Amino acid sequence: MTPGRGETMTTVISTRLPARLAGMIRQHSINSRMAVASLVQVLLEHSLDGQYNFAALFDVQPLDAKLDVRLPEQVVQMVRTNAERLGKSVSVYTRMILYAYYTRRLVLVKIGGRYTLAENHDQEKSA
Asked: What are the per-10-residue average pLDDT scores of the chain (127 residues)?
């Protein structure tokens, strides 16, 4: 089915992740009054030109929950390009970014008038 006027093509990203992380994302969604998909989209978009070393991030276990989000195809394609460049699947890339953000390894910062994800240097000092 092709989208009508004003509609955007979308794709579902299905990510397995720890139940605790899924709960944190859903609670953040409720607290910020944003749909889970919108919240994930914002974080993924800010990850694309982020100021961090992706290789320093790590994957997480156990994968006892699943998060499905429907995102605009254009966003998914940009994430896919970035993930493939790093040798990861879209699902793994998404999980790693979400985990790093919700464990405060990455934070949103304003650089040059726009927000991006960056390493949380304050966390390293306090650890």
From this structure: 68 97 98 98 95 93 97 97 96 98 96 92 59
